[in-house]
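FIELD: query
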Amino acid sequence: MKIPKKQLAALERVVAKAPRRPGIYRLLNITLNRSYVGQARNLRQRLNRHLAGLRRGGHDQWFLQQAFALHGPEHWEFHIVRHCDVACSGPELTELEAHYIARFNALADGYNCAPPRPGMKGTKAFSLIAKKAATGIQGRRSPEERAEIAARAAQTRKERLLAVRRSEAARKAWVARKSAPSSTPA
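FIELD: result
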């Protein structure tokens, strides 16, 4: 999706003015009045990553990406909701994020897929589960059910790698099967 530079200018200005310190931010779809609320240790860096992902059409939060593509950047605003001290800890940020997710109804009627949890990392597994949740069950699952989905996606890195990784021999056999011409009886 090629977005005209002019349409991104307002969002880029907000990102450029964002402080390089911890805080809570909000991505607001002004057409639908729906929000995505998040936390960051560096607000400018995090908003820049959001904008870059949305611009290239490959944002990790699939539901947010679809809404951005549908409505266009002129229907979005980025807000710094709360600045925090540099010494602000992860649990404090998570507590603030949960407060603002509830305040802006970002879980039940927004783009957040699960309640925030301390130490939660965005992974490919999480993105796949969030995409599945966003396409078919957004609004029909309780926050507790969404939290369970997020917890399953945020398993330890070692467990994810073991579940996904194939041995080198299995990979070679798979490639050989895929590249071999199929022989169908005549």
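FIELD: remark
Residues 5-165 form a domain with the GIY-YIG endonuclease fold (CATH 3.40.1440.10).
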